[in-house]
Write a structure and sequence with these properties.
By secondary structure, the chain is mainly β. It has 1 helix and 14 strands.
């Protein structure tokens, strides 16, 4: 994800020893990447708060994907957002909410970062047959947080009948006006 000012990105790096880790990369040519969160558990799919002071991410420390929040400055423990697992975390554009997926449910938790971090118990906004990802965010939210753009899953049944046509090339040659030229 990009910081709001466009000067920094957060990336996920695969490390054979620690799994997935998060790094800050300043887009200044002179700057070097800095570890944001490196643990023995996998952390990925981060999104920065609009003020750039916090980040929300997926952690697999519990054995399943859960949504957590931490300070970009470091220090302090993770503040858990999800209660029953979660994927695809995203800050609202005004910084007052964190959206995430819990299976087919779109969840929201209100968040306050000043004077201290405070996160409400998450609640379901809606549920539906929308594509769920365990990593990258697969939806977008309008600036007012009222509408979502999502990929709807379509269930299709296998065709009831399958026809195999053999000898089609001979039939095509016979049908050609020249009486057998190559198709």
């Amino acid at each position: 994800c990009f910081s709001k000012d466009g000067k920094t990105i957060v990336v996920t790096e695969m490390n054979p020893k620690t799994g997935l880790d998060l790094f800050l990369i300043p887009l200044d040519a002179e700057a070097r990447p800095a570890p944001l969160l490196v643990t023995d558990n996998s952390e990925y799919a981060a999104d920065l708060s609009p003020d750039g002071k916090w980040f929300v991410y997926i952690s697999r420390a519990s054995g399943r994907p859960e949504i957590g929040v931490r300070s970009v400055a470091g220090g302090g423990d993770e503040s858990r957002v999800s209660l029953h697992g979660g994927t695809e975390p995203r800050w609202s554009r005004d910084g007052g909410e964190i959206f995430f997926r819990e299976g087919q449910k779109m969840m929201v938790a209100e968040v306050r970062t000043d004077p201290a971090l405070a996160i409400s118990r998450p609640r379901a906004l809606f549920e539906g047959p929308y594509e769920v990802m365990d990593g990258p965010i697969n939806y977008d939210v309008t600036p007012d947080g009222r509408r979502f753009l999502m990929v709807k899953m379509e269930r299709s049944e296998a065709p009831a009948e399958l026809r195999v046509v053999t000898g089609w090339d001979r039939a095509l040659r016979k049908a050609l006006p020249s009486g057998g030229g190559r198709p």
